[in-house]
């Protein structure tokens, strides 16, 4: 008997046989997934480059001081998270393309679980990186006078602007990851639904 | 025809009729959900109290200075997120209990979507709050000498310790929210699976 409890058991390659509505919806979902993965790849690289290559030199009484992203640990985390998201999305995007070119690929629950888990982790990691970098950015912009942490963006205006753009781009990356994690949750958990499940209450 | 595209259409109250395995799994999932919601309620309140009531007075050359959570915007965000999570969980927990007491409740896709959306938002909000507060906490603990932001935990040791406990508790809250958001994704998306969907590739 096949219930939705049979985690990890692949139904194997079986010819697809479903209505036109479902087919159209499936192909739209696949295309949305591919587009989102490409967006994450592009914006992830852009954000990492914007933050990672940012620097500004200022002279204070003949002493040169350079602001760079490694001065702030949260920006290092942001760059790392974006590089990771871009790399992860390129692999997943490749899988999407292969699956679309082949027309029908064998579907397995373990693969769906792997994609779901990866997307979940990446969504939370990118969101956390944006939150931490955003917090640092706010401190740099407005300071925290109660703690004697002075704002530095009045000195390094160009540097701060570029970091701001990098954080905004990273926010779009994390939003795309959140949407993807919803799609992969859908792809995984609908495998556990039978017709009789439609009437179950929670 | 009922496909998995019929979003928003409630099947209405229909007697539950499924195998023992599924019944056991369902009731275990419900209990897990209720336990997690209670954990979030308890830990959310604990974290908010730990951070919100924390204060320490130090005297510097006859000038008294008090450290409190409002000195750091990220801690205010953390307290707000925890209060929100606790309030949200108490309402959702109540819904769980009512659903369990009634035995069978009418299940509707709009309700499942509402629970799923709420859980997703709360999971990301609590995770972002922990990341931002954690970043501030690290700055307070080790400082950022490149930016002339000095560590303050050597002066306010007791204050910092209690905030650290609050952040750790909030991290448990956000982990529980992540688990809950997976459960509610399962509860929602399995409604969209038919038997024929089991063979579809992605």
From TrEMBL, chains A, B:
Cellular-component GO terms for this entry: plasma membrane
Keywords of this entry: Cell membrane, Membrane, Transmembrane, Transmembrane helix
Sequence intervals crossing the membrane: 34-52, 72-91, 111-133, 167-189
Top-level taxon of the source organism: Eukaryota
Subcellular location: Cell membrane
PANTHER family reported in the protein's UniProt record: CASP-LIKE PROTEIN 2B1, CASP-LIKE PROTEIN 4A4
Sequence similarity: Belongs to the Casparian strip membrane proteins (CASP) family.
Keyword Calcium: no
Protein name: CASP-like protein
Membrane topology qualifier: Multi-pass membrane protein
All copies of domain Casparian strip membrane protein, residue ranges: 28-175
Organism taxonomic ancestry: Eukaryota, Viridiplantae, Streptophyta, Embryophyta, Tracheophyta
Matching InterPro entries: CASP/CASPL, CASP_dom
Main location: membrane
Subunit structure: Homodimer and heterodimers.
Signal peptide: none
